[in-house]
What does this fold into?
Amino acid sequence: MPKRALIEHRPWLLASVAFSILYYLIADRPLGEVFVLPGLYEIVLKGSGVMLLALYAFRRAPGLDGALIGVALALSACADMALEIELLVGGAFFAMSHAVAIYVYLRNRRERVTISQSLFAIAIFIVTPAMTWLLSERVEVAVYSLFLGGMAAMAWTSRFPRYRVGIGAVMFVVSDWLIFSEMGSFNLGELPRLLVWPLYYSGQLMIATGVVQTLRGERTPR
It folds into this structure.
C-alpha cells in the first residue's frame, strides 16, 4: 500500500480498533450512570467499531463487491446497537448482513475448491445450526444460524484470503455460540463475557481488511 494511502486511510482502521477496545473496557461498567441517558453512550460506542470498518470498506474497496461488503459491515454495526435494545431486531439486522456477505462470496467463488475445503465448508454449514440449537434451545435462534453458517461456509470457499476472511468468519460463528450458550442450560461461566467481543470484532476486522485489500490489489497498477 503506498505511503500516502496509509496516511490517508489507516486512521479509519485505527479509530475502529480504538473504539472497539474502549467499548470492551467500559461495557457494563458504572461509568454510564454519569450520563443523562445511562447506557446510550455504550450503545453508540458498541456500533462505532464495525461502522468505522464499513466506512473503511466504502472508501477503499472498489466496485460493487466493495460497496456490498461495506453494506454488510454497516448492517452488522446496526445489529450491534439493536441487540442492546431488542434481541429479535438485532438478529434481523445480522441475518441481513449475512445475506449480503453470502452474495459477495458467491460472486467471488474460488475457481478451484479442494475436497477438504468443500467438506469443511459443508461441515460449518451443518454444524453451526446444530450447535446453535444445542446451546440455545431456541428455534428462532437456530433459524438465524442458517444465515450465520451459510456466511461462514461461503467465506471459506471464496477467493478471498482463507486465513483471514475464512478464519474471521469462523471466529464470528464461535463468538455467536458463546452468546447462545447463555440462552440455554449450558454454563460457561465468565467465558462469554470475556471472549465474545474480542472474537467477534477481530473476525470482522479480518473480514474487512481481507476483502478490501484483495479488491484493491486487483485495481492497483503494478
User: Anything to note?
Assistant: Confidence is low (pLDDT under 50) at residues 31-38. Residues 11 and 180 are 34 Å apart (CA to CA). The chain has eight helices and no strands. Residues 3-219 form one domain.
